Amino acid sequence: MITSICFQQYLSSIEKYVSTSITDTHGVITYVSPAFCKMTGYTQKDLLGKKHTILRHPDTSNEIYKDLWTTIRQGKPWHGRIKNHTKNKESYWIDAHIEPIFNNDYIVGYQAIQQNITNEALFETLAKIDALTGLFNRYTIEELTQLFINESQLYKKPFSVIIVDVDDFKQINDNYGHQVGDEVLKKLSEIFQILIRSSDRIGRWGGEEFLILLPQTSYIKAKEMAERLRIGLSSYKFDTIGYKTASFGVAEIETKDTIDSLIGRADKALYISKEMGKNLVN
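Predicted structure:
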């Protein structure tokens, strides 16, 4: 038979290794396990009486927290991934399971069990990223393209794409070496990321080609963006090779478009830009 002392020892053992916390209905922390403190870098004294926002990483969107609170206030459990930071401001990811605590059918607080999944989340992120440029890789940008196509066709909203190809890129590799070529691609990626909007997405399409997705954007506006990118790149002086240009192809979604047909039209427009002398938008 398990005695109360044995049971307390059992609970203490769990608390060492399971990261748990309890809050009141306002989100004020009333209990944290030793494992929770170890994960966050805070002591129990630091955390008791505070809200979980003390851990919130600025990258975590308001929508996640809105969904979380809406769910648990309805008396339902919530499960999801959240990015937090420790006391030393080091970021980490958790897989969180939060459930309401009831007393006579009334919610009196919330209990959370968290698992640190930072390494797993990092691996998943790296699997989506092009190692050289830090942009989305081709697989990921294709997935995003399909999502934007679906959204555009469902809600009847515009969606445009831009394909970019660095002009005479082979000459860079031949004359200066692949390391210089890589540096050009990395710098170009930085320039484009600065110039596109926060709602746009950019990925490395392959080699010296890039694909930019512009949700809720017409062909005319997409051409304006492409021109902005063209000027931004052509006016930048690289350390080793001097100035460099790129050609651009733009296409807007049509009613029955697929990924292949939409990007195919952008590709044809890019080909025209190349044929007309390069450093152009079509």
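Summary: Residues 99 and 131 are 39 Å apart (CA to CA).
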